[in-house]
Write a structure and sequence with these properties.
two-stranded antiparallel sheet; Isopropylmalate_DH; Isopropylmalate Dehydrogenase; alpha/beta; 12 strands; single chain; ten-stranded mixed β-sheet; branched-chain amino acid biosynthesis; leucine biosynthesis; metal-binding; globular
C-alpha cells in the first residue's frame, strides 16, 4: 500500500515523540513492503512565529490532500501564561478539526498486563480494562458563540448541538460496539442541560436500530466516579466534546501515565492520529518524553487502512518494551532509557506475525475494531 502521511510535529515534545512513530512506520514499510511518503509542515505555536497563525494555509492544504495525518502536540507556555493573548496555538487544532470534518475522536483505554503495577489504582480494579471513548469533536461548547462583557466581568459560552451532529457519531459508536462487547454508555448531563437532553433523546432512538447492543445512560458526574471504581464495566462510551475531553484525561489514570494513550480523529474523508497528551514544554529536548502514545497512534493509523497485521506488529513490539521494561521515566519506575532509545527498541522489534508467536495475543491489542 502507498500512503501520503502529513507530519505535524507541533510544539513541545511533539516533534520528539512523532519522530519515534516515523521510525516504526518505516520499519513497517521495510517488513511488509509498503510505501509511505512523509511530508512535514509547521503547526501550532511554532507556526505562529513565522506566519502569525497556528494553522498556515499551506499546512491545511497538505492535510487536505494527504491520506492521513500524524500529529505530535500543541501548546506553549508563552501563551498559557498570557491570558491576554488573542490567538492561541490550540485554535489551530480546533480549526483543523473543523476544516477537515474530523467529528469523531476515538480514544481506546486498554490495560496492558505488564502495566498493572504502574496504575495508582488497585490491580483488581484496573485489570482487564478495555474501553473506548467516542467523543464528538467539532460541536458543543468549544465551538459555540463566546461573549465577554465590555467591563470584563461577565462571560458566556454557548453549547449547541444538532440532531445530525449527534447521530453521525452515535452510529459510529454503535457499529464499534457490535465488533466489541456489545455495550454503549451515553454520558451526558440530561438532568440539567438542554443540549444533553437532545443527546439522550437522539441516541435512545438510534439505539433501537441496534437491538443486539446493550445501551445505558449515565450522568457525567456518576460516569467519572464509575470509571475510577470499576472501569471494566465500560465497553464503548459515547459523549459530547467537553465531557469526552474530561473523561479521556481521567482514563489516563487507569494506566498511570498519559504518555501511553493513543487517539484518532476521523471524519467522512479525513483522519488524524495523535497521542492525547499535551505538549509538556518542560521536557522539550531532554529526551525523557514517553513516545508510546504516539507510536500506538501510528498503529491506529494502520488499522484505519485495514492493515491489521501491521498494526498488531507495532502493538506487539510495544508490549515487548513493557515486558523488558524498556520504558521512559514516567512509567514502571525506570530512569534508564530515553525517548530515542525506546523508539529504537520498538521499531527494531517490529516483525511479521510468523516471527512472533505473541503478536495475536488478545491481551496486547488496542481493542477490536477501534477504527471504523
Amino acid at each position: 500500500m502507498q500512503l501520503k502521511i502529513a507530519l505535524l510535529g507541533g510544539d513541545g515534545i511533539g516533534p520528539e515523540v512523532l519522530a519515534q512513530s516515523v521510525k516504526c512506520l518505516k520499519a513497517i514499510e521495510e517488513t511488509f513492503n509498503h510505501r509511505f511518503e512523509f511530508v512535514e509542515a509547521p503547526f501550532g505555536a511554532i507556526a505562529m512565529t513565522g506566519s502569525g497563525r497556528p494553522l498556515p494555509d499551506e499546512t491545511l492544504a497538505l492535510c487536505q490532500e494527504a491520506d492521513a495525518i500524524l500529529f505530535g502536540a500543541i501548546g506553549a507556555l508563552d501563551y498559557d501564561n498570557n491570558p491576554e493573548a488573542k490567538v492561541r496555538p490550540e485554535q489551530g487544532l480546533l480549526r483543523l478539526r473543523k476544516e477537515l470534518g474530523l467529528f469523531a475522536s476515538i480514544r481506546p483505554i486498554k490495560m496492558f498486563p505488564a502495566f498493572l503495577e504502574n496504575s495508582p489504582l488497585k490491580r483488581n480494579i484496573v485489570d482487564h480494562t478495555d474501553l473506548v471513548i467516542f467523543r464528538e469533536l467539532t460541536g458543543g461548547i468549544y465551538f459555540g458563540k463566546k461573549t465577554l462583557s465590555e467591563d470584563g466581568t461577565t462571560a458566556s459560552d454557548l453549547c449547541s448541538y444538532s440532531e445530525s451532529e449527534i447521530s453521525r457519531i452515535a452510529h459510529l459508536a454503535f457499529k464499534a460496539a457490535k465488533k466489541r462487547r456489545k455495550k454503549v454508555t451515553l454520558v451526558d448531563k440530561a438532568n440539567v442541560l438542554e443540549s444533553s437532553r437532545l443527546w439522550r433523546k437522539t441516541v435512545t432512538n438510534i439505539a433501537q436500530s441496534y437491538p443486539d447492543i446493550s445501551f445505558e445512560c449515565l450522568f457525567i458526574d456518576n460516569a467519572a466516579v464509575q470509571m475510577m471504581l470499576n472501569p471494566r464495566q465500560f465497553d464503548v462510551i459515547l459523549t459530547d466534546n467537553m465531557f469526552g475531553d474530561i473523561l479521556s484525561d481521567q482514563g489516563s489514570v487507569i494506566l498511570g501515565s498519559v504518555g501511553l494513550l493513543p487517539s484518532a480523529s476521523v471524519g467522512l474523508e479525513n483522519a488524524m492520529f495523535e497521542p492525547f497528551h499535551g505538549s509538556y514544554p518542560q521536557a522539550k529536548g531532554k529526551n525523557i518524553a514517553n513516545p508510546v502514545a504516539s507510536i500506538l497512534s501510528s498503529a491506529m493509523l494502520l488499522q484505519h487502512f485495514g492493515l491489521d497485521e501491521e498494526a498488531n506488529a507495532i502493538v506487539a513490539a510495544v508490549h515487548k518494551s513493557f515486558v523488558k521494561k524498556v520504558v521512559t521515566t514516567d512509567v514502571l519506575g525506570s530512569s534508564k532509557y530515553g525517548t530515542d532509545y525506546v523508539g529504537d527498541f520498538i521499531s527494531e522489534n517490529i516483525v511479521e506475525s510468523d516471527d512472533n508467536p505473541s503478536i495475536n495475543d488478545e491481551n496486547i491489542g488496542l481493542g477490536k475494531s477501534t477504527i471504523i
